[in-house]
User: What shape does this take?
Amino acid sequence: MMQMSHVIEVTAENFRAEVLEKSQTVPVLLDIWADWCEPCKQQLPVLMKLVEAYQGKFILAKLDAEAQQGLAHQLMQQLGVRSIPTLIFLDKGQVAMSADRQPIVLAGVQQESDLCQILDELTMSPAEKVKAEIDLLLENGQTEEALQLLQHILAQEPENNALQVLQAELLLKLGRTDQARMILDALPADLAEAAGPRSRLAFVDQMGDAEPREVLEGRLEANEKDHEARYQLAMYQVLANEAEAALESLLFIIRVDREFRDDGARKLMLQIFSQLEKGDPLIKRYRNRLFSLMH
Assistant: This one.
């Protein structure tokens, strides 16, 4: 028995409880293998690497075809496979289906990338799936359509805070700040997922009566040391998802005039860091550059 909470050994006696029933709440990858099977041994390190990477988002169920011949034969016969290793993906108590409604059953050694593609789809939360659809619409410039899709889903799940955060983000993209503010104000104050859009909204509030972006850009062409224009432009850049350009603008100000706006450029950089997703490489890169400037 493997001493890992996300890896189980399957027998005829525990198949229903450990595979079918558990797949109701978390996807199960059933690996039919045998000790004499070299391809099975080749596949195992890849499977264990995935177990480690996905951290409980799926369960690896190991079925020894030699020790459990009856169960292995029955499953393989039902699914029309004759060789091992055989990988069977189960979700919601049954074999998972592909987009073209085919059972996701793989025979032979599989590439890690192919397995990740299947697992990513199966382990996505509802919010992640919606976000993937929305991201696709946004890539195609269909922001309004993305908002309509999200609002249709929210009509069925109005208490879903993660989706409400997505709605606020989309409204901010469309410039509907008042609607976004109402949604964010209704969410719990300590909701971590709302930190990003709340930070973006704070940028909107800070802008106040800022001049139009094209005017600010014209001022900088005339005078690169117009720090007020560069500072206001950085806020426009943040709202346009141009975080790196904004950080460059603020570093320029700090390099030339650290005291500008009572250290405002550095403070604005810290706000941008808080808005970026955790682990974004921009955070580390620009924190290091900021540290170098200050010391």
Observations:
- The radius of gyration is 26 Å.
- The longest helix spans residues 38-54.
